[in-house]
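Consider the tokenized backbone below.
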């Protein structure tokens, strides 16, 4: 049924109903039209439904309009027009509401997903910077110069935004740098996953929360209670004295910027663009790795000096330092394992009672560590306690290679941070703690600011700000082999 036919049927229904009303008002006898009233009502409803279904509106909107009653052709078209205007206004605001329910980002009867004018530009930016999930752009957008002109209107590459020439609706002076940062963040997250060997430090550290300020963090170890004293019937409870030991670590801000030059944009060097976020991710991970590694290698391998007793982290008085080589059997590891278990709790004299979870080695000792701990194909031919896991109290140790260690013979051990945190970190960009966040990226959003104006460079700044330190000598040990 064509739109013209539908409109004709609606007008015919209206004329017939008008005639029926006039006849009834005059007191005449109902004619054949009165008997056909039900059929006319059905025809009116069907014709209105046909107009609504032909409108191209989303199905939930059509269902809402179809539930209404329309006396004239104009009433149906007015309702369709209002619905189109409503959807257009909501799409411009980035929100879709259908039947009173918020439907942004959903599909089905409850709502529809609306793509804004910059979704395609976001996907194209992801392609240029190497995001794994970014689709290949159309043929006319496979040069970064084309995307730059489409988002800025700067056809002469003068570094000035020209809103009259932009090709993407909603693009502003901040759109290009913001899309670049968004794309690079996606690549950095992917690259962090790929750099697992450099993220060894995440296995052995506890990420502490902070209050959002940059005061030095205080790492605290509690103890001193020992055994609970007996309480006789009717007697008073004894006040318990809790001992603690404190160490501090200051936040250190690390970062720099990478410039996307005018020449890089005009030449559309995709490989160079994609190298930027990967290099930033690798630099951030390696910097964190080096900061944790230095706790083991500072001061000729004895670590930082502790505030609680003015002695080095690894010291004979702490019962966590020796010169024993790892060897080719498990003897050295078993001695270190026993040593860790017997570390004394703060203030009480009680043993810590925790076995080490991780064996830290340089790359040269990795194969030896695998052999000693029973890793490899098949089961050991002879019983080896290190090759068995007995639960959290006596776990199977895990060898970790520390990329920053240059001494081929030194090694160390540390307990599981979930049982007893020793090395702690805190990030200013993640005050809630419990996770290692990616570094922060920032971009200049004005073509008249800084290097954008003076050097024809779009700078992307990276910042990583964290504190790292140890809370004491318990649960950690080092072997500085001569």
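A designed sequence for it:
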């Amino acid at each position: 049924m064509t739109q013209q036919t539908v409109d004709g049927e609606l007008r015919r229904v209206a004329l017939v109903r008008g005639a029926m009303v006039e006849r009834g008002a005059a007191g005449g006898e109902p004619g054949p039209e009165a008997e056909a009233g039900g059929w006319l009502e059905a025809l009116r409803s069907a014709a209105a439904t046909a107009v609504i279904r032909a409108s191209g509106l989303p199905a939930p909107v059509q269902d809402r309009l179809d539930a209404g009653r329309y006396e004239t052709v104009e009433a149906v078209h007015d309702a369709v027009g209002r619905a189109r205007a409503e959807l257009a206004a909501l799409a411009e605001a980035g929100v879709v509401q259908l039947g009173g329910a918020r439907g942004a980002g959903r599909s089905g009867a409850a709502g529809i997903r609306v793509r804004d004018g910059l979704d395609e530009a976001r996907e194209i930016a992801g392609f240029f910077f190497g995001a794994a999930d970014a689709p290949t752009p159309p043929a006319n957008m496979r040069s970064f110069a084309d995307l730059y002109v489409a988002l800025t209107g700067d056809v002469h590459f003068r570094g000035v935004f020209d809103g009259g020439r932009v090709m993407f609706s909603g693009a502003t002076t901040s759109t290009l740098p913001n899309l670049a940062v968004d794309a690079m963040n996606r690549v950095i997250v992917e690259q962090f996953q790929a750099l697992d060997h450099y993220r060894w430090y995440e296995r052995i550290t506890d990420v502490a929360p902070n209050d959002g300020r940059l005061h030095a963090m205080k790492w605290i170890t509690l103890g001193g209670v020992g055994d609970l004293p007996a309480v006789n019937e009717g007697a008073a409870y004894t006040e318990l004295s809790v001992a603690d030991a404190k160490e501090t670590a200051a936040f250190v801000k690390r970062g720099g910027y990478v410039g996307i030059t005018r020449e890089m944009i005009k030449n559309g060097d995709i490989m160079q663009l994609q190298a930027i976020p990967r290099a930033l991710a690798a630099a951030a991970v390696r910097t964190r790795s080096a900061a944790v590694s230095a706790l083991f290698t500072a001061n000729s391998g004895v670590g930082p000096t502790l505030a609680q007793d003015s002695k080095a982290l690894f010291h004979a008085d702490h019962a966590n330092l020796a010169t024993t080589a790892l060897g080719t059997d498990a003897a050295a590891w078993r001695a270190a394992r026993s040593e860790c278990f017997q570390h004394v709790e703060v203030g009480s004299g009680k043993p810590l009672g925790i076995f080490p979870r991780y064996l830290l080695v340089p790359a040269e000792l990795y194969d030896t560590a695998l052999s000693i701990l029973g890793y490899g194909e098949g089961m050991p031919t002879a019983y080896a306690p290190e090759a068995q896991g007995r639960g959290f109290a006596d776990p199977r140790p895990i060898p970790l290679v520390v990329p920053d260690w240059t001494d081929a013979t030194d090694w160390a051990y540390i307990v599981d941070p979930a049982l007893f945190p020793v090395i702690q970190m805190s990030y200013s960009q993640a005050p809630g703690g419990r996770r290692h966040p990616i570094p922060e990226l920032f971009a200049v959003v004005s073509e008249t600011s800084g290097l954008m104006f003076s050097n024809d460079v779009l700078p992307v700044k990276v910042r990583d700000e964290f504190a790292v330190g140890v809370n004491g000598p318990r649960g950690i040990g080092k072997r500085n082999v001569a």
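The radius of gyration is 36 Å.
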